[in-house]
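Hypothesis: this fold can be encoded by more than one sequence.
Test: take the structure tokens below, design a sequence, compare later.
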């Protein structure tokens, strides 16, 4: 670390290099919290967790037993050692419990009165938190692997759903039906994520080794297919326009939406510029079993955007899609 500090002081290294070194050191030093525990409710493996973004107090968990549990993370006892208690659960005796493994749970981004869950039982369910009753149920022909609601959208209530089929389905919570389908992948869709920066931009990952960025308003849909080689490999080669050398089973945007992180069964994580689709060549190794990503914001104030991505560097499709008259006004 002293070497990094000396190099930075001498102006030999960029600030970003030092920030990454510090972040890496802290991540490698992480340990489980010995002061806090969580009440055990699930009888088998837990597949998915989500903490509500409004207060950061309540957490949902979904298990391979089909059970969903809601926890209160607040330490109401004020004791140094405590266990987070389950507030309620949708267990095997509930009439609307999922029949098979719950793959994704997500709070409604704007309040805690509603949450969603999807399962191998080919359903996406919308729940009323207060009554623990289903407000709506979407049924699919294929096994559901994932779903996601936009954290910033104010002009639509679309839920993106990835299934065993190659099509991404968009479900409208307002109408209670599937509004349209995004076609372009060749195999099952394993991960979906809305941009936290733009209402209509969606990223999807598939077992076909590809990651696609979509503007759901456009008839053509797909804006970019991410290429790990940044176009330097012949398009005739089978691996051209692939994000990983294997299935891509996880992705997430950074908090500012400027970058996209993907993980694949090739034991690699890659960081992408979400505007240009360029592979930044930041390469991380990971476990083959890793399929869930979450971006952890910096503990300090973010470094201001240096606006290094000029219009000439942007894909023309993005330039058109991200400069609507609504945003200009």
């Amino acid at each position: 670390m002293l070497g990094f500090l000396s190099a930075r002081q001498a102006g030999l290294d960029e600030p970003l290099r030092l920030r990454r070194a510090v972040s890496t050191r802290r991540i490698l030093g992480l340990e489980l919290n010995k002061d806090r525990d969580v009440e055990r409710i699930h009888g088998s493996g837990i597949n998915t967790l989500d903490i509500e973004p409004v207060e950061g107090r309540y957490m949902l968990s979904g298990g391979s037993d089909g059970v969903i549990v809601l926890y209160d993370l607040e330490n109401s006892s004020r004791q140094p050692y405590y266990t987070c208690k389950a507030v309620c659960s949708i267990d095997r005796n509930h009439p609307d419990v999922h029949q098979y493994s719950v793959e994704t749970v997500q709070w409604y981004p704007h309040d805690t009165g509603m949450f969603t869950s999807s399962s191998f039982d080919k359903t996406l369910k919308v729940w009323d938190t207060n009554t623990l009753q289903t407000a709506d149920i979407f049924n699919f022909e294929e096994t559901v692997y994932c779903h996601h609601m936009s954290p910033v959208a104010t002009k639509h209530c679309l839920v993106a759903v990835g299934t065993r089929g190659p099509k991404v389905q968009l479900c409208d919570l307002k109408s209670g039906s599937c509004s349209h389908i995004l076609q372009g992948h060749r195999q099952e869709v394993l991960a979906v994520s809305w941009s936290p920066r733009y209402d209509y931009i969606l990223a999807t990952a598939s077992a076909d080794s590809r990651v696609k960025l979509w503007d759901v308003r456009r008839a053509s849909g797909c804006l970019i297919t991410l290429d790990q080689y940044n176009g330097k490999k012949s398009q005739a080669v089978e691996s051209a326009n692939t994000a990983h050398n294997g299935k891509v089973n996880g992705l997430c945007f950074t908090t500012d939406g400027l970058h996209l992180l993907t993980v694949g069964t090739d034991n690699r994580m890659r960081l992408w510029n979400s505007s240009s689709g360029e592979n930044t060549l930041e390469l991380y190794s990971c476990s083959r079993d890793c399929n869930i990503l979450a971006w952890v914001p910096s503990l300090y104030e973010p470094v201001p955007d240096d606006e290094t991505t000029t219009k000439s560097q942007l894909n023309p499709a993005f330039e058109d899609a991200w400069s609507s008259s609504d945003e200009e006004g």
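Residues 297-329 have pLDDT under 50 and may be disordered. Residues 121 and 214 are 27 Å apart (CA to CA).
Hypothesis status: open.
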